[in-house]
Specification:
With 220 residues, the protein is mostly helical. The protein contains 10 helices and 4 strands. Pfam families: Bac_transf.
């Protein structure tokens, strides 16, 4: 299912989509290899984290959420649950009077986040189950982060160009400052990626991701 309603924004930027098909194939091969090895090598950690989440707060260990991917197609993104099981019941109340930057809504000190969840978010451990989404092809290792449908509903035509690339586990916005960046600054980084994507660019962002995880500035 696609959330796009403007026919003029589904045409991809030529530098991202019309490039060498072999290069795109290499990107997908890297995604398959990276996600497959990652799931195998990280399996012990994933099991331990799942148990820790399950026994320290009510609810399942995993959380599925509808996100918007390539060309506005929606998919179910999986991550470790970091909030209380009743978090959605409190969302409307928290949004009332809260400051927003563009379509994004994120609280620095969100009261719905569990103590364990706060640690998982700080070091991006909660995102590791998305290796499964990469393996399935919903996501890539590198690309703009997948947005919520309610966020995409507020996108201007320029912002909709984020949907011309397969969403990623990490990307230019994440290594460029995460939540410390404003909406426009982060959008500029994502659109630069869409326009100038290359395998080398992906490699640089993956290396920078390691540094961003070790020094988790703006992760909450």
């Amino acid at each position: 299912m696609s959330v796009l309603t403007r026919p003029d924004v589904t045409t991809a930027h030529p530098t991202f989509r019309s490039g060498d098909s072999a290069t795109s194939g290499v990107k997908r091969a890297i995604d398959l290899l990276g996600s497959g090895l990652g799931l195998i090598l990280l399996l012990p950690l994933l099991v331990v984290v799942a148990l820790l989440v399950a026994v320290t707060s009510r609810g399942g260990a995993l959380y599925r959420q509808t996100r918007v991917g390539l060309d506005g197609q929606t998919f179910s993104m999986v991550k470790f649950r970091t909030m209380r099981s009743d978090s959605e019941d409190h969302l409307a109340r928290l949004k009332e009077g809260a400051e927003r930057d563009g379509p994004l809504f994120k609280l620095v000190d969100d009261p719905r986040i569990t103590p364990v969840g706060r640690i998982l978010r700080r070091f991006s451990i909660d995102e590791l189950p998305q290796l499964w989404n990469v393996l399935r092809g919903d996501m890539s290792l590198v690309g703009p982060r997948p947005a919520l449908p309610c966020e995409v509903d507020e996108y201007c035509p320029r912002a909709l160009r984020r949907l011309e690339a397969t969403p990623g586990m990490t990307g230019a916005w994440q290594v460029g400052g995460r939540s410390t960046l404003g909406w426009q600054a982060g959008l500029d980084l994502d659109l630069h990626y869409v326009q100038h994507w290359s395998l080398r660019y992906d490699a640089v962002l993956l290396v920078k991701t390691v540094r961003a995880v070790i020094t988790p500035i703006g992760a909450y």
